[in-house]
Design goal:
By secondary structure, the chain is an alpha+beta fold. It contains five helices and ten strands. Helix 1 runs antiparallel to helix 2 and helix 2 packs antiparallel against helix 3.
């Protein structure tokens, strides 16, 4: 019996691609179910105990960040579904506390970022000026001198303990990676004082999960398209 290459036997590339799509679909369905059930409980709790709901939501974000280290695809699928379930915060104002949830670039990069931010994390949150649709990032005073190495002409503002840097403009519009989902855009590109290297290529997007607990994505622009590079969280007054 004669055999012809590629006929009558499965193409391994096609088989692998189908397996990947099947796994991605299973993760997406599991993420949807997990988020729908847990978020429903959180929203009910927020009506009677907003402080407890806020703490539970923030703990959920960090839990997914930790889970990403052992089950990356499932954790990222749940983070994406949770972000999609959020609404743009319309009244976020003043100082917020920031939490790094995790990088989404590559498993190796993600682990390096997690290790680095455990040792030193100068970013402590964002300050919003709702009336002027703008704001800035809040960093520890120790970030001032390392920043001079990367951006020697950029000047941070503030005292020895806290500094303000990397100003942004805000607006509500569809997400750059999901046009059916409205988000609060935190845009660094329009601010001319921001460093062209790195900072102006960033676009943050923010949603509120429950009052006072916000989930954000940091998007990086590459070759004209935005890609999710990290998740972060902000805590404000519920």
């Amino acid at each position: 019996m004669t055999t012809i290459d590629g006929v009558g036997s499965p193409n391994p590339d096609v088989t692998d691609s189908r397996a990947e799509r099947s796994a991605a679909g299973a993760n997406a369905r599991a993420a949807y179910d997990a988020v729908a059930a847990r978020l429903s409980r959180l929203l009910k709790l927020s009506s009677s105990d907003p402080d407890a709901a806020q703490q539970d939501a923030l703990a959920w974000f960090l839990e997914l960040g930790h889970r990403q280290r052992r089950d990356r695809s499932a954790a990222l699928a749940e983070l994406a579904e949770l972000f999609r379930a959020g609404q743009p915060p319309r009244a976020i104002d003043g100082q917020t506390d920031g939490l790094v949830v995790g990088s989404t670039i590559h498993p190796l990069v993600d682990r390096l970022v997690a290790a680095a931010t455990t040792l030193w994390m100068p970013w402590v949150g964002k300050h919003f000026e709702a009336a002027n649709a703008c704001g800035s990032n809040t960093l520890t005073g120790g970030a001032r001198w390392p920043s001079k190495v990367v951006w020697p002409r950029y000047h941070m503002r503030g005292g020895p303990d806290r500094v303000s840097a990397f100003d942004f403009e805000t607006r509500v519009e569809p997400s750059a990676v999901d046009e059916d989902h409205e988000v609060l855009v935190i845009d660094y590109a329009p601010v001319r004082e921001n460093p062209r290297l790195g900072i102006r290529a960033i676009r943050d997007e923010l949603v509120e999960i429950v009052p006072g607990a916000h989930l954000g994505t940091m998007l990086l622009r590459h070759r004209g398209r935005y890609h999710v590079a990290a998740y972060f969280a902000l805590r404000s007054q519920p």
